[in-house]
Amino acid sequence: MKPPDSEVRALSAGWLAKARTDLLACDALFAQGAELWEAVAFHAQQTVEKALKAVLVAHQVEFSKTHDIERLLDLLAHAEPALTHAAADAAELTPFGVEYRYPGEYPPVSRAAAASALAIARRVYEEAARRTTAQ
User: Fold this and answer.
1) What is the Cα–Cα distance from 78 to 61, expressed in whole angstroms?
2) Domains along the sequence of the chain with CATH
3) Per-residue model confidence as pLDDT tens digits over 54-72
């Protein structure tokens, strides 16, 4: 049995609100400079992950716990093919939500990489917001 539309909209809005918080964090952290570019990339990944989950919820597509953006895009392919295509480059953010969360051997995040991650996050968030508020 499917939940009532009001519950679906509320849960989708909750995911989108969390995505917006991460996007605001990206903006604030980017302005602080090089020491926080890794954190910008992490929050960009989180923005995209949560925004995509908002759209999945809106379409009542079930998903497991995952930080894999490509997996989330695959789940969206039937419900939102245009979004899946438009957000394909967001899959490159997955390592920032997984590997970069912990100490390890990986290249530092450059200003250009942080700026790109932020731009992707903003674009995906806006697309998700447009699609979930239209439901």
Assistant:
1) 10
2) 5-133 (1.20.120.330)
3) 999 999 999 999 999 999 9
Which pLDDT does position 16 carry in this prediction? Answer: 97
Query: Burial letters for 57-88: b for 16+ Cβ neighbours within 10 Å, e otherwise?
Result: bbbebeeeeebebeebbebbeeebeebbeebe
End-to-end distance of the chain based on CA atoms, in angstroms? 19
DSSP per-residue letters across 97-119: HTGGGSS-S-PPPPHHHHHHHHH
What's the Cα-to-Cα distance from 11 to each of 4, 18, 87, 127, rounded to whole Å?
A: 11, 11, 22, 17
Q: Give the single-character DSSP code of 31.
A: T
DSSP assignment, residue 2? P
Q: Global pTM?
A: 0.94
